[in-house]
Design brief:
By secondary structure, this protein is an alpha/beta fold. It has two domains: 124 residues, Rossmann fold (3-Layer(aba) Sandwich); 65 residues. It is 48% helix and 13% strand. The chain has eleven helices and seven strands. The chain has a five-stranded parallel β-sheet with strand order 5-4-1-6-7, sandwiched between helices. A two-stranded antiparallel sheet has the order 2-3. β6, α10 and β7 form a beta-alpha-beta unit. α4 packs antiparallel against α5. The longest helix has 11 residues. It is elongated. The two termini are 20 Å apart. InterPro entries: HAD-like_sf, HAD-SF_hydro_IA, HAD_sf. This is 2-haloacid dehalogenase. It holds the Pfam family Hydrolase.
Length: 202
Amino acid sequence: MAVRAAVFDVGNVLYRWDPRFLFEKLIPDPQERDWFLQNVVTMDWHAQHDAGRPLAAMVAERSAKFPKYAGLIQAYVDRWLETIPGPVPGVHPLVAELARRDIPLFAITNFGAEFWELFRPEAPVIGHFADIVISGREKLIKPDPAIYRLALERFSLEPGEALFIDDREENIRAGEKEGFVGHHFTDADRLAEALRGHGFLA
């Protein structure tokens, strides 16, 4: 079956994202900053919101555990857009070209629902996508196989019809098991080559 649609991840595929971009501004000492990101505002803690947990509960719990850092924990919510410094170089023009060629575009993203509401108005490229499965809304998170099955159903795609583009290998492997054709994203040039290989680009 020919691949006919492209399904993108968002973080570090369409837009650069890392909490460090914010906390480099707020915690000048690099050793303290590293400790904070390894123990307080961690990726595992952030992932709770991706999986559907409300931010208010997360912040209250974390602030009780680390009262010294309560202000910085709250700043992660209040200034969260500063964790996204801009687009991943070269990818947005590829999305625009795919849209111009009428390639069906979709996305599957691990993204908290509240953070998505902040982010979406700042991300015009998302307007090219017909539908997006957002983990925080569905309470399913990559690489759970169920999120890929939901996406195929929502996007009206059969196994083998969608190229799935993600920067994390475990997400690619899980998607491939559910019928996606995987592309492990590293940069726009390699992505363009893969898109040409599937006949999406000249």
